[in-house]
Design goal:
The complex is a heterotrimer of chains A (about 240), B (about 475) and C (about 230).
Chain A lengths: L1 E4 L3 H5 L2 H13 L3 E3 L9 H6 L2 H14 L5 E4 L2 H14 L6 H10 E3 H8 L8 E9 L2 H6 L4 H8 L2 E5 L15 H4 L1 H18 L3 E4 L2 H13 L5 E4 H6 L2
Parallel strand pairs in A: 1-2, 1-3, 3-4, 5-6, 5-7, 7-8
Helix pairs in contact in A: 5-6, 7-9, 11-12
Chain B lengths: L2 H15 L1 H24 L3 H17 L1 H13 L4 E5 L2 H14 L4 E4 L3 H5 L2 H7 L3 E4 L2 H8 L16 H12 L7 H18 L2 E4 L3 E3 L4 E6 L3 H5 L5 E7 L3 E2 L5 H13 L6 E5 L13 E7 L3 H6 L14 H5 L1 H6 L10 H12 L1 H9 L6 H5 L6 H15 L3 H15 L1 H14 L3 H4 L8 H4 L12 H8 L2
Parallel strand pairs in B: 1-10, 2-3, 2-4, 4-7, 5-8, 7-10
Antiparallel strand pairs in B: 5-6, 6-9
Helix pairs in contact in B: 1-17, 2-12, 16-17, 16-19, 17-19
Chain C lengths: L3 H13 L25 H4 L7 H15 L1 E6 L2 H15 L3 E4 L3 H6 L6 E4 L6 H5 L3 E4 L3 E3 L4 E5 L14 E7 L3 E2 L2 H12 L6 E5 L4 E2 L7 E2 L6 E7 L2
Parallel strand pairs in C: 1-12, 2-3, 2-4, 4-7, 5-8, 7-12
Antiparallel strand pairs in C: 5-6, 6-9, 10-11
The chains are: A alpha/beta (about 240), B alpha/beta (about 475), C alpha/beta (about 230).
Chain lengths: ~240, ~475, ~230
């Protein structure tokens, strides 16, 4: 299968290793991976703040970039949800509405793609350590992704999964919310990190890099030695 | 920023910093989660029940005129006076009128958020009526002269010590740290009031059109006493409370109890269809039902958000909302807190003044997931943001996002800007956390990551050459 | 001059005119929102109830235990009287309130307490000073351990809620499986002439308003006893 990568701006600029992990996993499975270089941002920041005209302007770039793609896969629940769930609403009544619907239909979140589309859970990955998993809210509630990351982690040799009490609680990122309401965002981050600590895990893993950025930010502030990794990085480790 | 918005931010800042308060609320809710999950698990399908509940409310709300007319006709046929109140003021005036015309002196109330919404108590007290809240939580906050903290559990933020002190001060009772003893103190005070009151004011959870009845859900029995002993019963409810058929209660009563309190059924679920009927032993001589609009029809007109009128005021969304759990009920500064409050308050009180409530959310969707009638709560928050920005964009936001959109539509410029960011990044530690820091909103409480030396775009280009 | 009713109905009609709302979407969130399937009934989703009377009584008993409803299965009226006698002695009861039915009369036949009958009315302070109130009921609901009472079947509105101990005397033939059945029963029994008061009682009165800790006997009865006779 020819798979087009959708790499959100966070991953592009701050965590490129996550993108390479996705490439590695998909290529190891025998698929051809391409990266439409015209992509920039899915348009979430203006969209979430209510500026839908500006969001559309940014989103048109995505429509163009993925026009010729067969299937689009992205390692971020929130950005994929933006395309899959919100593009049809954003482009309702617009001349590009059909294109938006088509892109929505062919875009998938990485873990969901592996388990539900490709039907694989065992990627031959090896990772020694105690891991806890944070469910990014958009992936969880907009896309219904919950068992897929766990099915994949279950097959990673040497990995022990410890569920945290607040796995489904929001980390507090929420896009512009994190800087518009920093005290609330921070409080939510504290609750999440306390739950992570309680598990005794060495590593916190998520399927959303923006969540990891928020969690890492607090863990670093607390001078914690707990590592944070994207699910793709775990799945690519040998 | 409006004063309401800055007030919200101030209160939110205060409460999020109060770790004791946060821990207390967490503890208070932990028992609820377990019981709620147990009750949900006893359903053959909680999701199936939600679907049916959503469908039933859809039917009711989208034929609201038909069902309201049917309800009013049926209940009037049994001697109830139905008053249709287009606004809060008219509702208040009517109730004051009933009190005046009947020489009422003492009024007892059971829990009704609708009466909070129209500030009924203030209006009654101003006219010299003694008004007693009979619901334990409402009674407690009434004594403290505070509004309810949570729409189902008004006093959940108070410790037993605080309540004991309160009773000691206001009632002269002996101090105690037993919730049971505190409850008994309130019980004995209230018994007096039930027996003396001329008028009982209640709300209603549902209004059944088919049989012309209102239905009240409670645990304490105070609503039953409020509506049994006084000679006049006034019920006030929002027009959206209507349900088509009596059998709908078989679904909604357990769902309200489960979502609201983690119970299979609350203790008393009572259907009232009139004042004392011929041949009946007791009950009020008069019964009045006040149907309140107060801008609900504006929400009705917004087809996208019409489902919000299906709300059964269970409070489940509050109980799962990470914002509510951290900022507490008072930060909202409104009658209705939590996600439902953040969705409807901009409609009920003004979009531009209250849009900040819809903005103060990470849109995690836990509320929508918890809602027994499947209101699309978190998406409505998003829609409110869109509507607010479309009607009156905030200048700095508009400019920033115009810039953002332009930048993202010109990828080569975007990548250049990112390169510049890398050049300036080493300077950031110099201003990190200070007033010069452009990222201060983040860095005050969290570490900010470094940009990678090269972006994935650059790395990909290089690797695939 | 328009009255409130006209104003509100006009607003509603205007709001709904040619302005359809999206139907509720099916249970799992997805980008293709299928419509909720219709024509289902509560019975399909609410907790399942066994079909036999034995199963239903058993369920009712289990629910009662969880609710702290004191359920006594009585072989005959003599058993019921014995339990009432025990409660009277235990509680040091002086005055019991009730309304007149064949069962309440039979139950109180040999009771020595002062009896207040509410049949033709009562003084509030008189009822308030009773130690217990004894009533009949419309039916018992197995599914939730609830008892449906009404003004005619329970001697008015206050008898079953003002005295601190509420005693219900009922028969096994009054057991119905679930809330749907209970409401159907009420509809069939009363047709168009519903009583002004019907109530599902599910356990003794309680509150969780203080630190969300459960306390029994908030305002209504602290204790609820059901004397369940055969027949």
């Amino acid at each position: 299968m020819r798979i087009s990568l959708f790499i959100p701006c966070f991953v592009d600029q701050i965590y490129p290793q996550v993108a390479w992990s996705v490439v590695r996993v998909l290529e190891d499975l025998g698929h051809q991976v391409d990266f439409p270089e015209g992509q920039s941002c899915c348009g979430q920041p203006p969209f979430n703040t209510g500026y839908w005209d500006e969001a559309r302007t940014a989103a048109r770039v995505a429509l163009a970039a993925f026009r010729d793609s067969e299937v689009v896969v992205g390692p971020s629940g929130s950005c994929v949800a933006m395309m899959k769930v919100f593009y049809p609403q954003l482009f309702k009544g617009d001349s590009q509405e059909l294109e938006a619907r088509e892109l929505a239909a062919k875009t998938h979140e990485f873990s969901s793609f592996l388990v539900n589309t490709l039907g694989v859970t065992d990627l031959g990955a090896k990772f020694e350590g105690k891991v806890t998993f944070h469910d990014g809210c958009h992936g969880l509630r907009e896309l219904g992704v919950k068992k897929e990351p766990r099915a994949l982690l279950a097959k990673v040799r040497g990995l022990e999964l410890l569920e945290m009490a607040e796995a489904e609680s929001c980390c507090g990122f929420g896009g512009t919310f994190a800087v518009k309401f920093p005290t609330i965002s921070t409080a939510m981050d504290e609750v999440k990190c306390a739950s992570i600590l309680e598990t005794g895990a060495d590593v916190v893993v998520s399927n959303d890099s923006s969540c990891l950025m928020q969690i890492r930010g607090m863990l670093d502030k607390q001078k914690s030695t707990i590592r944070s990794l994207h699910l793709a990085e775990i799945l690519a480790s040998r | 920023m409006t004063t309401f918005a800055s007030e919200f931010k101030k209160m939110a800042g205060r409460y999020t910093a109060d770790l004791t308060h946060r821990a207390f609320i967490k503890k208070a809710l932990s028992g609820y989660y377990q019981k709620r999950d147990d009750s949900k698990a006893s359903f053959q399908s909680w999701q199936g029940a939600r679907d049916l509940a959503a469908e039933t409310k859809y039917e009711a709300v989208n034929h609201l005129d038909r069902y309201l007319v049917e309800f009013a006709e049926k209940i009037e046929a049994r001697g109830v006076k139905v008053f249709w109140a287009p606004s809060a003021g008219e509702a208040r005036d009517y109730i004051l009128g009933v009190a005046r015309e009947n020489g009422v002196r003492s009024i007892i109330k059971s829990k009704t958020m609708t009466s909070e919404e129209i500030h009924l108590n203030d209006a009654l007290e101003k006219e010299g009526y003694g008004v007693f809240e009979s619901d334990l939580g409402e009674y407690i906050v009434q004594l403290r002269k505070e509004p309810p903290y949570h729409l189902v559990f008004p006093a959940m933020h108070l410790t037993r010590g605080q309540i004991s002190d309160l009773f000691q001060k206001e009632l002269g009772s002996a101090p105690t740290d037993s919730p049971e003893e505190l409850t008994m103190i309130a019980r004995s005070v209230m018994r007096q009031k039930y027996c003396e009151a001329d008028m009982g004011i209640s709300g209603a959870n549902f209004a059944v059109a088919e049989t012309g009845m209102i239905s009240i859900t409670e645990n304490e029995g105070n609503a039953r006493l409020t509506t049994s002993l006084p000679r006049i019963h006034v019920a006030i409810l929002g027009i959206e409370k209507v349900l088509p058929r009596l059998e709908d209660l078989a679904l909604f009563l357990p769902m309200l109890a489960t979502a609201g309190a983690g119970q299979q059924m609350t203790c008393y679920n009572t259907m009232y269809g009139g004042p004392r009927q011929p041949g009946e032993i007791d009950g009020p001589e008069q019964m009045h039902v006040v149907l309140l609009d107060n801008r609900r029809t504006e929400i009705l007109a917004d087809a996208e958000q019409r489902d919000t009128l299906g709300c059964i005021r269970c409070g489940a969304c509050l109980n799962v909302c990470p914002i509510f759990k951290n900022v507490g009920g008072y930060s909202y500064g409104t009658t209705y807190q939590g996600p439902i409050g953040s969705v409807i308050t901009p409609h009920l009180r003004g979009l531009q003044d209250w849009k900040h409530l819809s903005a103060a959310s990470s849109l995690c969707g836990a509320c929508t997931e918890a809602c027994p009638v499947k209101i699309d709560l978190h998406h409505h928050l998003l829609q409110n943001r869109r509507n607010a920005a479309a009607a009156k964009p905030v200048l700095i936001e508009k400019i920033s996002f115009l810039g953002f959109a332009w930048l993202m539509s010109h990828p080569s410029v975007y990548h250049l800007a990112a390169k510049l960011g890398r050049i300036f990044q080493p300077l950031h530690p110099l201003v990190n956390g200070t007033f010069l820091d452009p990222l201060i909103a983040w860095t005050r409480s969290r570490a900010f990551p470094n940009l990678a030396p090269t972006s994935f775009h650059e790395q990909w280009k290089k690797s695939r050459k | 001059m328009s009255d409130g009713k006209t104003i509100i109905l006009n607003r509603i009609r205007e709001a709904l005119r040619e302005n359809p709302a999206p139907r509720p979407h099916a249970s799992h969130t997805s980008s293709d929102r299928e419509e909720v399937p219709r024509d289902h009934t509560p019975r399909e989703w609410l907790p399942k109830v066994g079909e036999s009377l034995v199963e239903q009584i058993d369920l009712f008993a289990r629910q009662s235990e969880g609710l702290k409803t004191e359920l006594h299965r009585c072989g005959n009226m003599e058993d019921a009287r014995a339990i009432l006698s025990m409660l009277t002695t235990e509680g040091g009861w002086k005055k019991i309130a009730t309304h007149t039915t064949p069962d309440t009369s039979a139950l109180l036949e040999k009771n020595c307490s002062e009896i207040l009958k509410t049949d033709t009315g009562y003084r509030i302070d008189d009822l308030e000073s009773c130690d217990a109130g004894i009533t009949g009921c419309e039916c018992l609901v197995a599914q939730t351990g609830a008892i449906l009472v009404s003004a005619p079947s329970a001697g008015g509105r206050a008898l079953s809620v003002l005295p601190p101990h509420h005693i219900i005397i009922a028969r096994t033939s009054q057991m119905v499986p679930d809330l749907t059945a209970a409401l159907e029963l009420a509809k069939k029994r009363y047709g168009n002439k519903f009583p002004s008061f019907l109530s599902f009682i599910t356990g003794p009165s309680r509150t969780g308003d203080i630190e969300r800790i459960l306390v029994l006997g908030a305002h209504g009865p602290k204790r609820l006893t059901v004397l369940l006779l055969e027949g």
